[in-house]
Amino acid sequence: MLASLSLRGRDSRALLPALFLLLLLPALAMAVYGLNDRLPMREWPALLAPHTLPQIIASASLLPRSLAALLCGAALGLAGALFQHVLRNRMAAPETVGAAGGAQLALALTTLFAPSLLDGGRVWVAFGGGLIAVALVFALAWRQKLEPLPLILAGMIVTLYCGALGSALILMNEQYLVSLFVWGSGSLVQNDWSAIRLLAPMLAAGMMACLLLLRPLVLLELGDEAARSLGVPLFALRAAALAVAVFLSTAVISSIGLFGFIGLAGPTLASFAGARTLRQRLLWSPLLAMALLWLTDQTVQQIDRLLGDPLPTGAITALFGAPLILLLLPQMKAHGGLWQGTVSVIRSAAPWRRVILLAMLVLAAAIVALCWGRGPQGWRWIGDLHELTPLLPWRLPRSAAALAAGGMLAAAGMILQRLTANPMASPEVLGITSGAAIGMISMLYIAPSAAGFTHVVAASAGALGVLLVILLLGRRSAFSPDRILLAGIALGALFDALTAVLTANGDPRAVILLNWTMGSTYRVDGAQATLTVGIAVVLLGLTPLISRWLTILPLGDGTSRSLGLSLGRTRLLLLIMTAAMTATATLVIGPLSFIGLMAPHLARMLGLHTVPSQMAGAILSGGLLMLAADWAGRMVLFPFQLPAGLMATLFGAPLVMWLLTRKR
Amino acid sequence: MACGVFVPRAIHALVLAVCLLLAPGSSLWAAEPARRIVSLDWGLTETLLALGVVPVAVADVPGYRGWVVEPALPEGVVDLGSRFEPNLEQLQQLKPDLILATPYQNPLKPLLERIAPVETIAIYEEDASGRDNGNHPLERAVAATRHLGSLTDRQSEAERLIADTDALFTAARQRLDAAGAEAHRPLYIATSVDERHVWLYARNSLFQDVFDRLGLSNAWQAETNFWGFSSAGYDELADAPEARLLLLRPLPSGVEASLARNPLWNALPFVRAQRVALIDPVLMFGTLPASGRFARLLVLTLTGAPL
């Protein structure tokens, strides 16, 4: 059921407007102050027909910026509330269904290959891209009648794929695509009213549609069975509501930019502050999101005035919003997994034959990766050991580390998906990779000349920090799965914000950062490879011992306890193991490879359903995917190299998409 | 007793002497200059080419041709791929004697040193003092030119490049002085990021140093980062109403069209007075050749005639 968050024992009716005003009033004060600073108050009537330059600036830049913040906030808050309601997932956001990824990819492609299309307005290009991506997501989830689970899975994979393709384009043409960095980090800077003129009618239309859908949507709260028995056409209703939400979020993305966290923060804040019914959530989510975005943007403008360097508002929103979610988390009612019982435990005929086949494939791939490659003389197969020796110091560490890291991420993802009974769970979602990344980035900026080893230490410290936060948050709720995931999402947003701020300011180090976050094995040397492989052998060797826990845990807390499992301790041990594997892998292939997400699904789709065989299959296919990705990344655009994590997403995502439509 | 102390000292002195002789830049090295040079930075590449040294390989050949333009990169120079992740297998198989890099490539140094000695030459470098370190890239480019000259045994070519660039600045300044007040309006020199944002080059930038040599004033006085630019919205360009705007090519696609439709852009003083000019690509993070190219482009733009 839709998780109902609430603050126990408080008067929700007073809390919601109070929170709204608390966010709105300072924003209003700062807006008035800022406008007065640019244009004295007695001249304000002239804003309707501006003549002097200060009047034109106020009217074409300051006013639309405030309005843009309000409209974006409202649209995203409303879209977020709709997504959460229909998809029954409080982690659902406008990004979840692929709109953001599609829009960004469309802009990148158009910038490179058909720039003349942009002259007609990038808005429509982004809008088209967003709609195509969403259509693809819906097509993938169509056979399952757009049920929440397959839809989110499809949305996530399409988003990943678009993001990976877009990043590859940015890496290949770094200097041409700076504008995409700025757009992606959510800048609200406006020069005229065109974006407002586009967005306002779209928002109005979306709100109208929302009102029309309100009554049947309320019935959805009763549960599918009850709603169906009352004659609600579930499928049509979900499709219509999702269409409205997609329309609203694509409108914002295409006309202004990305503000993903707002679409999540609005509904979450509303729920925390006690909005219980759908009506309340649909009213207060947009209002709170709107006030939050406006307040953030006004604060950012004040900071700009002091620093002189414009900060991207969308990224800063996440810097504010993520800690807010973390602070509110302990107040949340403990809740079981969202998809309990949906993880299949059916046995297949001969799983181990498939596992052995997979292992042989990994071996063959490793030999190819070491012996076959491009050089100054073109493609060459080098079978002669004497000739191969000078190349091995470059090829062997990267291949070995990629293989080990892929296997560890896969195992970590497998554990997390079983632990939380949530197919969206992965080490990336848990936030451990983000923690490692934050540690590594801080090092890059605090001590740019520091040697590689300090990066290792810094990243480990970051990963450990996140683990501690998660353990602290988790202890109060016996490591309740969805609370841990939400904490991970908040931390991930924090990391995104950090990178967005850094990349938007145009620091050339952003490209190094981007390479690493996309999973480049470039800097792996012999020592790091040995360490990675060593840790992988030890930790992956332990996985058979936890099979029983992973089989029992998805059956639910009650069943697990009655089978004699100590929930708190089991989860703690699993978390520590996951964290260790994730941190080691992140240091090699960056925080965003998504192998951990894809590999367990691949294994299951290969027919490996029992825990031991699925684990083995996940480890092998994760390692294989990463190994192949690393090799391909070095070869495809030779002498340019594409990061292995990125290539893994480019390979893996279509594979998962294809399997998704084929089988269930 | 005395002997016992003396012998280790003598060995010590001998070792020290050998070390000094072998240190980069010392006479023993200069006698036998590196022949197979690889350059990983566009700025160092352009200086090398201006000294008449053709590197065996450079990073990002298409990027150099699009953003640096001249001195033209000869055909046959091997591409090493990205400046941030140069292809190490390729590099090793080319067997270079010397690799030239800049501080932003420091993280790569341990890997590169396994292939050949790495010489890091700093033009733009973050220091402990924070963002605005009062850097003068032009001075550092002169020092870098001499350094590269001695590394490649082209000391006289290096002095000639320095003198030629100096003479070019003097000639450019005379041409601008002759052109009068119209050529001496304060200048915004910017890269367009998109239709709402620009990067403005000022303090700490190569362009600022060239402005100073040519007697031109920069309209953008805000603090900059150590690369010598800060980013801003177009509305912030209204503070100097008499200024001229120079936008560096290439512009991101679609920007020109959307600016033309934009009321704020059209209300900016330099747009109303038609004092906006597009100038050809020149490496903003460059060295001496870029500074000379920039001076020539400035004369062409501000006086309407080439230098």
TrEMBL record, chain A:
Entries under InterPro entries matching the protein: ABC_BtuC-like (IPR037294), ABC_transptr_permease_BtuC (IPR000522)
CDD domains in the cross-refs: TM_ABC_iron-siderophores_like
Membrane protein topology class: Multi-pass membrane protein
SUPFAM superfamilies membership: ABC transporter involved in vitamin B12 uptake, BtuC
Keyword Methyltransferase attached: no
GO terms, biological process: siderophore-iron import into cell
Pfam families with a match to the protein in the record: FecCD
Record field: transmembrane: 67-87, 99-118, 124-142, 149-173, 193-214, 226-247, 253-275, 282-299, 311-329, 355-375, 395-416, 428-447, 453-473, 526-551, 572-595, 615-633, 640-660
Molecular function terms, GO-annotated: transmembrane transporter activity
Alphabetized UniProt keyword annotations: Cell membrane, Membrane, Transmembrane, Transmembrane helix, Transport
Location within or outside the cell: Cell membrane
Chief location category: membrane
Gene Ontology CC annotation, any one: plasma membrane
Keyword hit for Transport: yes
Similarity-based family: Belongs to the binding-protein-dependent transport system permease family. FecCD subfamily.
UniProt protein name: Iron complex transport system permease protein
UniProtKB/TrEMBL annotation, chain B:
Subcellular location: Cell envelope
Pfam families cross-referenced by the UniProt entry: Peripla_BP_2
The Fe/B12 periplasmic-binding domain, residue ranges: 36-307
Superkingdom of this protein's organism: Bacteria
Entry keyword set: Ion transport, Iron, Iron transport, Signal, Transport
Principal cellular location given in the protein's record: other
Gene Ontology CC entries for this record: outer membrane-bounded periplasmic space
GO BP annotations, alphabetical order: iron coordination entity transport
Similarity-based family: Belongs to the bacterial solute-binding protein 8 family.
Protein name: Iron complex transport system substrate-binding protein
Organism: Insolitispirillum peregrinum
